[in-house]
Amino acid sequence: MASLRAYAAVAVAAALTTFVLVPVARRIAVRVGAVVAPDERHVHTTPTPTAGGMAMFAGVLVGVATALAVGGLHEVVAARTELVGVVVAVTLVHAVGLVDDLREISPPAKLAGLVLAGSVLVFSGVSILVFRVPFFDLLFLSADWSYLLTVVWVVVIANAVNLIDGLDGLAAGIVAIASATFFLYALRLADEGIVDPANPAGLWAVIAFAVCVGFLPHNVHPARVFMGDSGALMLGTLLAASTMSVGGRVTEPFSGQTWFFFAPIFIPLVILGVPLVDLVFAVIRRAARRQGLSAPDKEHLHHRLMRLGHGHRRSVLILWGWTALLSVFV
To answer: CA separation (Å) from 252 to 140, 263, 280?
Structure first.
């Protein structure tokens, strides 16, 4: 069984690395001109450096290195193919997002990067292998369906996190809450013998949680730096890897407080309800207007809350609260 102390060491290392390096990333962003000016997409009123995801990426790497170095996680990091696959996928997505932060790239190019990252995960063994249909039985996916659903999952989760990153601290807080919930969920399944104690889902969840905690002090309103696509897309990929590592492999029946029709892959949908609902409405809204998904507007959930009279911080707290409330169902 993985040691909680080892997980704590990973979390502290990743969080501290992120926290310390955010000012460095901010200075680099200013120097290279990666600064977001107020426009129709954003609600901030002063130009703000982006590409804070560089510090978060460093936190991810340090978290992985710590997991390899400390005792107590030997079983979790033993599957080196999966470990390397997730690191490579996260690196690819971070690189694509960073280029977009610095000079902007086309939506198809970003989509191609996410598809490539999803493909890397599949070929390294991180994929959705089974799917439980509510009120029916398990579906064991063929290689083709497993590949397709895995790539779609990565694209959806990454874009959901990216689109909800519209207010200071919003995306980082939501991902922190969701990741903490996934971590506890993975531990519970391991304790009950439903998943292998060596399952790496908890590791990816605790790293995602830690880098968000390290980033938040710099990102709460008024933010001194944004995570940018380099951070948001990377966090989405980490969440996708974590949820697939546990949700896409569970074949045991669920009982007790866990409703069988939410398990296993439906639970992440519940926990990530806020960004996923926002994503669905964004797709519908822009399809009705015959616009691309990347077309800017101020019709997201957080924009609507602010128009109802809630301030910046209160709107963020409300959406954090909704995420925490949905997490209780797990």
So the answer is: 13, 10, 30
